[in-house]
Every structure is written in C-alpha cells, then in structure tokens.
Amino acid sequence: MAGAATNNGAGRGRPGYDLDSLLRTAVKVFHERGYDGTSMEDLAKRLGITKSAIYYHVSSKQELLRMSVDRALDALFAVLDEPESLEGPAIDRLHHVVRRSVEVLVDELPFVTLLLRVRGNSKVERQALARRREFDHLVGELVAEAERSGSLRLDLDPALTSRLLFGMVNSVIEWYRPRQGLTKEEIAGTVTTIAFEGLKRRE
Fold first, then answer.
1. Signal sequence span per UniProt (predicted)?
2. Pick from 58, 78, 99: which residue ends a domain?
C-alpha cells in the first residue's frame, strides 16, 4: 500500500509534503478537475511547490494515479487475507468481508472513490479494473460457497448477489461525508444488517 511507501518518502521535498500528503492532494484535485483535466502544474500550484519537487517523489501523473488506486485495492485485498475471512462458516466469512469492506471504504474514502470512477482509459486504469474484477470474483466464490452450505437462498445467482452486495457497499461513496457524525462501525453494521437479514435463508 501507499502508506508503506510514505515512510520512505518522509522528509523529502518541502516540509509537510511527504508522499502521503502528495497522494491525498492529488486525489482531491483529480476529483475536482478530473484525472485527464489535471496537470502536474495544477498539482504543484495546489501544493505550493515546484513540479520538480513532485517529480522527486513520483515519475509522472500516471504513477500518482497508480499509487492512489493501488492504495484502495491493496486495502480491499488485505480484507480477504484476514483470519476472519479465511476461517469458519462461509456465511460468517462473507459477513466479515462485507463489513470490513465498508470500513475500508470509509477509511480510504478519497482513494476508493477514485478507484470506483476509473473507466479504463489508460493502462493504469485497465490494470485497476482487472484487479477489481479479481476481487469481485473472489467474493462471488465466497457467496457460492455460502449458498452451497445452505446459508443463503438457493434461487440467487452468486455472481449477481456479489454485484448487488458490493453495489450497496460502493454506494456509500455517493453520500457519506466524514463530518456527518456516523462512525464506520455504524455504517458497516447497518449495511451488513440490511444485506444479510435479506439474504439469510428463512425456514
């Protein structure tokens, strides 16, 4: 994740503008102006530093985009490697993955928002979309396993269920703002309650 690289970049360039600060500012400007509409000059002006100071951290605007979307993707894939995602009944593992994915979205909101808005217009974006599809596939397999175990309704298509689940998760980026007073635990709890009370097989 980009956070690991931040430590290596700490102290570079103008004080207060380490790699993490650079990425956060770049993502904010990408949201405001669009990635294609943002130049390195725009970023330099926003940061109050020279373009050469930015190039001390990264080689190009594309690298900024890659590091930003990878930060979101790495955090999501890390959820799949947590013990609660790997052990126990499939329905419990699925519940954990959905809940933790909401928490990742809240923690990394600008980066996940950027990820969800890429359209494949560049090599970096196409690679990000490929990783998103891989994540979706792994979640879909977990849904299918939960269905086979009898925890979910048998008339639901696993791939469609996965898309709908994460459609609800991803919709959080459209309305959530950190100053609204909701904690990530409250949001994650509400999403999982709505999703799984509707998915659990009724006797």
1. none
2. 58
Six token digits for residue 175: 């309305």
Contacts of residue 141, Cβ cutoff 8 Å, sequence gap at least 6: 158
Q: Each residue of 24-37: pLDDT tens digit? A: 999 999 999 999 99
pLDDT value of position 178? 84
How far is residue 43's CA from residue 38's CA, in Å, rounded to a whole number?
7
CATH of the domain at 77: 1.10.357.10
The residue among 69, 70, 5, 17 whose CA lies nearest residue 43 is 17
The helix (H) or strand (E) run that includes residue 200 is none
Beta strands, E only, 66-142: none
Token code pair at residue 144: 């299918």
pLDDT at residue 13, rounded to an integer: 40
Does 113 share its domain with 176?
yes
Inter-CA distances, 168 with 38, 58, 148, 183, Å: 30, 34, 23, 17
CA distance 107 to 18: 19
Long-range residue pairs from 84-88, CB within 8 A, at least 24 positions apart, any chain:
none
140 within 8 A of 86, measured Cβ to Cβ: no
Cα–Cα separations (whole angstroms), residue 140 to 20, 165, 182? 33, 10, 29
